[in-house]
Task: structure prediction
Amino acid sequence: MIPRRYQLKKDAVAIIERGHPWLFRAQMSSAAQVFGDGQWLRLVDGANRVIGHGIYEAEGAISVRVLSRGPAAPDAMWVRAQLAAAIERRAALARRTTGIRLVHGESDGLPAVVVDRFGDAIVVASYSAGSDALARYVARLLAREQHEVVGPATSITLRPARRRRGPALPARALRGTPPAIATFVEDGLTLAVDLEAGHKTGAYLDLRGLRHAIAQESLAGARVLNLFAYTGMLGRAAETAGAAEIVQVDQSGRALVFAAQHHVVDPAKHRFVEADVFEAMPTGAFELVIVDPPSMTSQARQIPTVLAAYRKLYAAARERVAPGGAVIAACCTSRIARGVFREVVASALGPDFTLERELPAEPDHPVSFAEGDYLKIGWWRARSR
Result:
């Protein structure tokens, strides 16, 4: 696509030069209204100096996603190089798992594009309509080129972004026939992915570190409460660690059926509860309570409401923890800053709980800007009484 010229305001020039990958709608002039969704732009300052290039979004808070900085215009070879570099950065990770995020959007230089590998199934998705064309090209590159880290992909699926208006565009198979259920191996565990109705591209690869931490925990004979369990991967990790009883709660009956079918070794150790965690939470004393709610907003004006919900949620979780037990507190709402989340959890749990550790981002989910630090996971320990 041939980029069109757009002159930036002074504050927008400063934002790009500082390295931030987004320009918000309030930072744009009315001249941008002539551009269509997905238009590539040549971004210039008042002296007609090329600051960089970006993709225009016609709707939403983000108006431009930055592709590159400097005068050189990104082209097909540029996209190919970005993709190859992102895949190469995953080479070490590929030695321990076949479930990998091969491309992580802005942090890998391909804005709003994600590529996930689940064994021999590849899913390419965009989370912005403006980046659909870029995602299509990335998917076609993967379909015709061989990368060792990608593995022998027997299927490649392209998922366009959800539209704010109108019907959703269907997913397309660019290679093979995507399986309804894909599998991958992670730290010796075989995990299953619902490719037909799964969240994100099918599974939460960003929780790999948490699954590993739980599997390595000493849980012999322990009771575990897994809230917002989804397809039970964290419950599977708890069973690996020796847990004697695992209660898994989610409002999706389909997800819990999937969990029971694919992420259980000993059915006698698992109990599945279909319920809205915010409305009903199983009672009892558990040595480990896992609280991993979904993202609750992308809008700044809703933050106070979300924080109130977190306080209520973690206060309720506190009452389910046995003496000396632990709460795993997770937040994937990008609008909630790490320090704010830590303070909210500390306040809700009270002085009897101590933060033992926080888990870092996974290597295939690099964080290159503040809003990219969306996933926060803390391990809080209750005082022994």
In short: The first helix runs from residue 10 to 17. The mean pLDDT is 94. Helices lie at 10-17, 76-88, 132-144, 208-216, 233-240, 253-262, 303-318, 338-349. The chain has three domains: 4-69, 76-187, 204-382.
